[in-house]
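Project standup — Tuesday

K.O.: blocked on the structure for the chain from last sprint. Re-posting the sequence here as requested.
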Amino acid sequence: MSQKILEVKNLTKYFKAGGKQVVHAVDNVSFSLEKGKTLGLVGESGCGKSSCARTVIRLYDPTSGQIILDGQDITHMRQKELQPIRKKMQMIFQDPYASLNARMTVRDIIAEPLIAHHIIRKKAEADEYVFPMLERMGLSKEHANRYAHEFSGGQRQRVGIARALILQPELVICDEPISALDVSIQAQVINLLKDYQEEKGLSYLFIAHDLSMVRYVSDDIGVMYLGQLVETSTSEELYSHPLHPYTKGLMDSVPVADPKLARQKEKSSIEGDIPSPINPPSGCRFHTRCPYATEACSAQMPDMKEAAPGHWVACHLYE
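H.V.: unblocked you, prediction finished:
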């Protein structure tokens, strides 16, 4: 029987936006992640993917809901209580330059978590950990004394990945780790992450815009729109039989390299801009852009229902 490394129940995160206004960044989101597996979160910019991830790892305090990591409730833990827990979960950030300290060498950047968690006491002890990790990331020990500005974007991201993996965590949250990289480098970084996962049995929460890449790396996928999950399924099931109109629109918007196939492909059904998370639409939040919207869609929020075995969707079309 598979074990769950992460359970998120009715997670909500609101941000104050001045006065009485609040930003509904994450609203009543629930999902789980099995050990050794990858869950992909997809959606447009501003749909709440990164806010959800940062709340899960407790960079943000949740407004409500529950976060259970490896059977332990971490929802309301204070920072001191979270210190030993953070060894189990690490994060790879989107921007490989902004997330690295420009004044620190690569050796010090990668060794910093080891010192913070008292695995080593002095920087002089770091090399036996840092050098093997650099080589595992496709770099060498000669890179250890260099600074972040001396590397390419792909190399900087490898340093960021090395820093996240040096503690041998059980869960790694990948917050769009390849979006700032050249296409030719993206595949290298993704393959590096997959190889390490197979070797160590890591679990990934993988956030990205690139739907084809998410399909490649993920076992299960959750589709987010305006702070809410609207569809979840296995990767193959979701791409073979998308149900929610928003998911179908995302699929239609994926570019096709073949000009003939591109001409035959249906135009994306998603029109207009994503509404403001400060004042989200009533009922189904996608009804303002949905070609199938009815009166019920604007009046009542649909519940997440199992339309097929293991395939859940929040849409009135499937009631």
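K.O.: great, moving the ticket to review. The two ends are 31 Å apart (CA to CA). The CA atoms of residues 226 and 283 lie 12 Å apart.
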